[in-house]
Amino acid sequence: MVTESKITVRYAETDKMGIVHHSVYAVWFEVGRTDFIRQAGMPYSVMEQKGIMTPLSSLTCQFYLPAYYEDELIVKTSVSKITAARIIFSYKIKRQKDQALLATGSTSHGFVSAKTFRPVNGKKALPEIYQALSSAIEK
């Protein structure tokens, strides 16, 4: 499963050079990730209500071309790996008008208890969403 999230670059996201600041890509990854989880069957807010959180443990981003103010972008999000302890999402950011690949990246998240922030077995804690995310892995 690959989800697509639409983004329009806001002026505040650009820097003095007129291009999107590198820090914004992490925010766009989050937009893609939360859309993906919701489309897989459970909004992230419901996961939190059930006592599970997925804090970020690593983030990578490769930049190929810049994005500019008012560019319309598509964040393509997929799950590349899931275990009982963690989940890894992959991202591709493309400009909509010419399908130019602007950036790729990944984020890794652990499954933790919202009360103790200690690791939990995601497969046991949220079996329905774990199954949905597992079956969504791009083969």
TrEMBL record:
Segments crossing the lipid bilayer: none
Superkingdom assignment: Bacteria
Keyword Chaperone on entry: no
GO molecular function, one term: fatty acyl-CoA hydrolase activity
Keyword annotations from UniProtKB, A to Z: Hydrolase
A Pfam family it matches: 4HBT_2
Family the entry assigns: Belongs to the 4-hydroxybenzoyl-CoA thioesterase family.
Protein's name according to its UniProt entry: Acyl-CoA thioesterase
